[in-house]
Write a structure and sequence with these properties.
The protein is an alpha+beta fold and 199 residues long. 37% of the residues lie in helices and 13% in strands. Strands 2-3-1-4 form a four-stranded antiparallel beta sheet, covered by helices on one side. Helix 1 (30-46) packs antiparallel against helix 2 and helix 3 (110-126) packs across helix 6 (177-183). The protein is globular.
Length: 199
């Protein structure tokens, strides 16, 4: 029996997670993260996409991504294949790098985008041993660009949408996206429409 065809809606953002096989580390150092961004950049040149939140951990990564022109499966295949090739060549590595196909879930409303992006940005704090004590000081996350109000050098990273949602959504009490992220707590009653992967 073949794999189920993934649903792709070009106007929708997706929470994408990819994990190392057997939970092994797939990012061993800063150089590997640079290679991952090279894979993103190479794919972006062929298939335009937008990332509004990301976090790269040792054995997995998270993206909040929209692919308006190319099916997301094709985009992710290109990113993961390219990075896998870089990694295997660098470390003379043989075998399967990733656990399985990437996990993805649609995030279709403003509160969902704010909550999922906050969850992504809090990842370095919520591991069994916190990787940082402040989200803004974790170097492999997009939160730094929001906190320090600076532009990312990569054209596929957009940091304008989420702050604008805070300004334009009347029910949100927080004044900025940064405070929304800092105050966000994962609770059972948040009504996520998918299962959030654990670290």
């Amino acid at each position: 029996m073949g794999r189920m065809r993934r649903i792709w809606q070009p106007e929708i953002y997706y929470h994408v997670t990819m994990r190392g096989n057997n939970r092994q580390n797939i990012f061993l150092n800063e150089g590997d993260v640079s290679l991952f961004f090279r894979a993103l950049q190479r794919t972006y040149k062929k298939s335009n996409f937008i990332i509004i939140a990301y976090c790269i951990m040792n054995n997995h990564y998270h993206l909040l991504i929209r692919s308006p022109e190319t099916p997301l499966s094709e985009v992710m295949l290109s990113i993961n294949k390219t990075y896998s090739e870089y990694f295997k060549r660098k470390y003379n590595y043989f075998g399967q790098l990733y656990e399985t196909r990437f996990f993805s879930s649609m995030v279709s409303d403003p509160i969902g985008l704010l909550n999922v992006s906050s969850y992504i940005h809090q990842n370095p704090l919520t591991t069994s041993k916190a990787m940082t004590n402040k989200m803004e000081y974790y170097p492999y996350s997009s939160f730094q660009y929001y906190f320090f109000d600076k532009k990312c050098d990569y054209p596929f990273v957009n940091t304008e949408l989420l702050p604008n949602l805070i300004k334009n959504y009347p029910d949100i009490k927080e004044r900025t996206y940064v405070t929304y992220c800092e105050n966000f707590r994962i609770k059972q009653d948040l009504h996520f429409d998918y299962e959030i992967p654990t670290n």
